[in-house]
């Protein structure tokens, strides 16, 4: 029962699904529940794939991709996209660390953030349409599943701020829980695909997330909630790119 409560709590935090249950929150619950992030990604990916199939039946694969992207925005509330934009505005402002963190807290969208959002939307749209039509639903499922399963690797860092939502996770995750999450994600990817290239792509994504963590930590002295969102959003795009590479070379 506690596992079910943990899963529901993560769904309520990371999605905008109108769930009817109220889970009493206690300190440390989210960090302990982190092993269920792969299932959160699976739920998001599954709903996105259903939206794709609906749009595809109505008006073809292009409409299906638009439906899937819209479903993803609805489900997540653009939570991670906001983090990506803030991260790019701050880090690429060429200011000192303290000023970068101030810029990242500013609710206004800057040029760097706007460019990052545009590139991510274009990459998601064109990347999906580069794939064979029969692979599209599967990849749409795997993108959020893979990114979120590896996300605890982004949280194995110090917190760059004194307070904020990211403090619920950053620095509170153990290597053991992170590896359990990554392991569950690997099992789900292979169970759904039985494809070695997709499993390799997933493992490469895990390595990239650690490299991204070191990169951000070197600039800000730690991670923030915004950089977690940026890491997740970029992870989906990187996994999509690896899927396109595999499809191009016939490895899928």
Low-confidence stretches: none
Distance linking N and C termini: 38 Å
Q: What's the SSE pattern?
A: HHHHHHHHHHH
Structural class: mainly alpha
User: What summary fits the major beta sheet?
Assistant: none
What is the helix content? over 70%
Principal-axes shape call: globular
Mean pLDDT reading: 92
Strand content: under 5%
Number of domains: 1
Enzyme class: transferase
Keywords: Cell membrane, Cobalamin biosynthesis, Magnesium, Membrane, Transferase, Transmembrane, Transmembrane helix
Transmembrane segments: 33-54, 66-88, 109-129, 135-157, 178-205
Function: Joins adenosylcobinamide-GDP and alpha-ribazole to generate adenosylcobalamin (Ado-cobalamin). Also synthesizes adenosylcobalamin 5'-phosphate from adenosylcobinamide-GDP and alpha-ribazole 5'-phosphate.
Please tell me about this protein's structure:
It is found in: Cell membrane. Belongs to the CobS family. The chain has 252 residues and is mainly α. It contains 11 helices and no strands. The model has no long low-confidence stretch (mean pLDDT 92). 45% of the residues are buried. It is globular. Helix 9 runs antiparallel to helix 10 (196-220). It has one domain (40-248).
């Amino acid at each position: 029962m506690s596992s079910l409560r943990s899963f529901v709590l993560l769904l309520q935090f990371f999605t905008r699904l109108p769930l009817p249950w109220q889970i009493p929150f206690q300190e440390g619950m989210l960090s302990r529940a982190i092993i269920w992030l792969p299932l959160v990604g699976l739920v998001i990916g599954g709903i996105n794939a259903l939206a794709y199939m609906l749009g595809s039946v109505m008006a073809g694969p292009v409409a299906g991709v638009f439906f899937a992207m819209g479903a993803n925005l609805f489900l997540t509330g653009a939570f991670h996209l906001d983090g990506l934009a803030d991260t790019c505005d701050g880090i690429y402002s060429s200011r000192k660390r303290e000023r970068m963190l101030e810029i990242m807290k500013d609710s206004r969208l800057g040029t760097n953030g706007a460019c990052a959002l545009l590139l991510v939307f274009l990459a998601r749209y064109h990347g999906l349409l580069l794939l064979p039509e029969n692979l599209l639903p599967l990849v749409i499922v795997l993108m959020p599943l893979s990114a979120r399963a590896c996300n605890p690797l982004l949280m194995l860092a110090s917190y760059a701020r004194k307070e904020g939502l990211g403090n619920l996770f950053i620095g509170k995750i153990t290597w053991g829980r992170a590896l359990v999450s990554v392991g569950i994600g690997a099992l789900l990817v292979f169970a759904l695909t039985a494809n070695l290239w997709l499993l390799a792509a997933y493992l490469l994504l895990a390595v990239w997330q650690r490299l991204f963590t070191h990169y951000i930590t070197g600039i800000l002295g730690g991670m923030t909630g915004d950089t977690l969102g940026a890491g997740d959003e970029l992870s989906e795009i990187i996994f999509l790119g690896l899927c396109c590479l595999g499809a191009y070379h016939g490895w899928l």
